[in-house]
């Protein structure tokens, strides 16, 4: 890797300088964005290989281009590893990211105007679950479900059932990007069965925790399809993945639209329906990441992610912060900044940027503030756990967060916290970045 970067320094010093700048930013600071992580050196190496040169439209053994001696076994290995990780019949490893993975599933099953039941955005759902600003929301009818009790995070399953029946939902979507609790997949599946809908889970955030068997797997509750990103808790390269149960048949031939044929409907939706050639360098990196996630050490990592999140949530609450649902069962938490600090999430994000802690503002349930300056701030522990931090360091970081925000007018205090953060960051190297 080092020699490649050295060549870049000569051939394109401008880009080289930006890469070096980003390396320093990552090394010197703390990454608490819940959707980010640091990939291993092996994943980085696979990403930067000659597989990027190759066109492979189609699927293993069924391509529209020649020269697939190494891409076919590579994609087959990725599929095998993904199926083993998530215990399902079929995996499509080609989605370019999480959003295209969701779109490909919608198009595999829905007709224009059909209803999808997704989690309300301010309660933790994702943009791709039907935000009015997305093109999908112009085509399909997205209807919302919410928490019944924002203090515990319990979903209103009765309301979910009522709304699913009323709107004749075709997909019941269980998934989130800012919800700190576990979903009751059995209840979602019960509703899906009652209305004859596909039970779909978007596990983009928690895929690594499910692969490590720390959190529940929707397939164990009869779910038909699961989408995910590969770059969050799963700790792979940026990308998407679609997993499903059912009969796997030739993806180049059309099949009847029924739940049994979902794997093939999805394959045909990804290609040729929605995407062109897969990014084989990215699939190589996904394959390496899946291999890493199958190893026992990954379970230890995933367990520590959750322990660290619980420790951080516990300390923040001890310091007087109000958290959405009063804690966490996964890797993330959402602080109600208005109640905790008297300022909105955008302000808190900015203050933390100043001291070297990267976070992301977030809405809180039924937020009255707008999404670009919402009431909350989302924090997560996957990245700092990869760097080797345990509860002791995480609790200290929680204290610095509160100290920095409460003393935001005091420049000397801000400088002192920034120095402490730099010192601790340098003790925990980022994989692939030299000290
Ligand atoms: C639940 C969920 N689904 C889908 C996505 C979209 O993934 P991507 O940004 O890779 O398109 C995200 C991203 O944050 C997510 O949290």
Describe this structure in words.
The chain has 435 residues and is an alpha/beta fold. It has two domains: 47-293, Aspartate Aminotransferase, domain 2 (3-Layer(aba) Sandwich), CATH 3.40.640; 303-427, Aspartate Aminotransferase, domain 1, CATH 3.90.1150. It is built from 17 helices and 16 strands. A seven-stranded mixed β-sheet has the order 4-12-11-10-9-5-6, sandwiched between helices. Strands 13-16-15 form a three-stranded antiparallel β-sheet. A hairpin with a 2-residue loop joins strand 2 (58-59) and strand 3 (62-63). Helix 4 (71-86) runs parallel beside helix 11. The longest helix has 23 residues, at 296-318. The radius of gyration is 22 Å and the shape is globular. 49% of the residues are buried. Bound molecules: pyridoxal-5'-phosphate (PLP). Pyridoxal-5'-phosphate binds at residues 35, 97-99, 102, 126, 128, 175-177, 202, 204-205, 229.
How is the secondary structure organized here?
Blueprint: H1 2-11, H2 13-28, E1 30-31, H3 41-47, E2 58-59, E3 62-63, H4 71-86, E4 90-92, H5 98-109, E5 115-119, H6 136-139, E6 141-145, E7 147-149, E8 154-155, H7 157-166, E9 171-175, H8 185-195, E10 198-202, H9 207-211, E11 225-229, E12 240-244, H10 262-274, H11 280-293, H12 296-318, E13 332-336, H13 337-341, H14 345-355, E14 357-358, E15 360-362, E16 376-380, H15 382-386, H16 391-406, H17 411-427
Parallel strand pairs: 1-14, 5-6, 5-9, 9-10, 10-11
Antiparallel strand pairs: 2-3, 4-12, 7-8, 11-12, 13-16, 15-16
Helix pairs in contact: 1-2, 3-11, 4-11, 5-10, 7-8, 12-16, 16-17
The structure holds pyridoxal-5'-phosphate.
